[in-house]
Amino acid sequence: MNNILKDISIFLIGMMGAGKTTVGHLLAKELGYSRFFDTDSLIEQLAKGQTINEIFTTVGEETFREWETQVLAELSTYKRTVISTGGGIVLRQKNWSYLRHGLIVWLDVSVELLIERLTEDKTRPLLKDADLKKKLQTLLEQRQSLYNQADLRITVQPQETPEQVTKRILEAIPSVLKPPAIPPSYFN
Ligand SMILES: Nc1ncnc2c1ncn2[C@@H]1O[C@H](COP(=O)(O)OP(=O)(O)O)[C@@H](O)[C@H]1O
Ligand SMILES: O=C(O)C1=C[C@@H](OP(=O)(O)O)[C@@H](O)[C@H](O)C1
Ligand SMILES: [Mg+2]
């Protein structure tokens, strides 16, 4: 796998609760990549240890999105790295120019499954005080066509473990890597 990937980095995108952070760790390990980063964790560090909830409260979503772009810009220069992004990273056109530095994998998870995973979760500010189903449906409607611009779409099944999802990503990667250019010597 490493031969095929060369030193390409992988960016995981998808809705909140899709499993990007969980699977990203495993994927980096399986690929033998020593580096794994989660954009949200880096933003929390940048904000001197504030949680994402606190950041949304103190500086607001717009500043969070600005920091998200800054963090992504830096990460896009890294090779052989798995990067789990926040679900809203796809919203800014500028972010796509950074994501395109690597292979973009969309973890596609149904709203029903997202609800199961996020019902008890209090770490996502955009879901606070909201009708969970309605909010997730609205966000997915707004974002689906953006997620769809990924290089690879992995549709996660309800019973699939993070390990199984990781294995499916690894199996699917070769099909989306561009074939090597034909060497000039071929035409001589
Ligand atoms: N394949 C899976 N099967 C069951 N639970 C999962 C799976 N992937 C993630 N989870 C759980 O779902 C929740 C959200 O996962 P997380 O990795 O934080 O998603 P994201 O980073 O995409 O928001 C966590 O509680 C995590 O343990
Ligand atoms: O979808 C979003 O807009 C967000 C997703 C979150 O990350 P996860 O996708 O890892 O939950 C986090 O960046 C923030 O709460 C906003
Ligand atoms: Mg995450």
TrEMBL record:
It is an enzyme of class 2 (transferase). It comes from the Bacteria. Binds 1 Mg(2+) ion per subunit. Pathway: Metabolic intermediate biosynthesis; chorismate biosynthesis; chorismate from D-erythrose 4-phosphate and phosphoenolpyruvate: step 5/7. Substrate binds at D40, R65, G87, R143. It is found in: Cytoplasm. Catalyzes the specific phosphorylation of the 3-hydroxyl group of shikimic acid using ATP as a cosubstrate. HAMAP family: Shikimate_kinase (MF_00109). This is Shikimate kinase. It comes from Floridaenema flaviceps BLCC-F50. The lineage of its organism: Bacteria, Bacillati, Cyanobacteriota, Cyanophyceae, Oscillatoriophycideae. The gene is aroK.
